[in-house]
Design a protein that fits this description.
Layout lengths: L1 E4 L25 H14 L3 H8 L6 H8 L7 E2 H4 L3 H6 L6 H10 E5 L3 E4 L3 E2 L16 H14 L5 E3 L3 H4 L8 E8 L5 E3 L4 H14 L7 H10 L4 E3 L5 E7 L4
Parallel strand pairs: 1-3, 1-6, 6-7, 7-10
Antiparallel strand pairs: 2-5, 3-4, 7-8, 9-10
């Protein structure tokens, strides 16, 4: 079982690992694309106005540009420690212990606009690049990544649960993966896709699946694991889609 997570805009500072070495990252077939983007992003940092325009930043966020300038020299830390925010707070992978922590390290992966796809322990520096960034003289990042990333995702074996957001799912297709929607149920019984609970709910789901002793191999088995944990889950509109239903906020 492999759980594909989205990255986060917010990332932890520092790290205790050596500077970035692309050959230490998983999925080595992505190395040429990674090097091209890291070189490009580091060079772009020398032009703050151009960096702000490309990355959608304000002058108050110039520290993010400074991070990009140091991509080849900054310390690294494992990917699951680098990404922060609501989903990663709910995942709370650092609190897993023993066998559960080992399973999480094997089962969790992160989609990345800069690195394509990372395993939990891959050492990476802090950076700023999102799926919607528009680098000068380049088309979309989806057009850049798909030729390299599609074959990697197509080659994944076992059950794949894709929790990536739309922009990151667009960087590479994971055929056969199970996608997850978070819906809210209103008092009148109607439902809608929700953003407020989306990241936290997916983080809790990722924690459950990362640490469980169960090893589901298909969608019915996955449903059983989730339901045993008490999460309200249903078949979605598509054969390979699940819906997690959360209550609507009052007022």
């Amino acid at each position: 079982m492999l759980i594909l997570l989205p990255p986060s805009e917010t990332k932890s500072d520092g790290g205790d690992g050596p500077p970035l070495e692309l050959d230490r990252l998983s999925f080595p077939e992505l190395t040429p694309a990674r090097k091209e983007l890291v070189d490009e992003l580091a060079a772009l940092a020398a032009d703050p106005p151009a960096s702000r325009a490309a990355l959608g930043l304000s002058e108050r966020q110039d520290a993010e540009i400074a991070r990009n300038a140091e991509l080849w020299s900054a310390p690294t830390t494992p990917a699951l420690r680098r990404y922060t925010g609501v989903l990663y707070d709910a995942l709370d992978v650092g609190s897993l212990r023993g066998a559960a922590a080992e399973r999480a390290a094997e089962r969790l992966a992160v989609g990345s606009a800069l690195f394509g796809l990372l395993r939990a322990g891959d050492p990476v520096p802090a950076y700023r690049l999102s799926s919607g960034s528009a680098l000068p003289g380049r088309g979309t990042l989806a057009a850049f990544w798909r030729p390299a990333l599609d074959p990697v995702l197509a080659g994944l074996t076992g059950l794949v649960i894709d929790l990536r957001s739309g922009g990151y799912a667009g960087l590479g297709r994971a055929p056969g993966a199970i996608s997850v929607r978070v819906l809210t149920e209103r008092p009148d019984g109607s439902r809608a896709v929700v953003s407020h609970f989306n990241k936290a709910t997916k983080g809790r789901l990722a924690r459950l699946l990362a640490g469980t002793r169960a090893e589901p191999t298909d969608l019915p088995g996955l449903l059983r694991v989730i339901r045993r944990a008490g999460l309200p889950v249903e078949h979605g509109r598509k054969p390979d889609e699940l819906d997690l239903v959360v209550p609507d906020l009052p007022g």
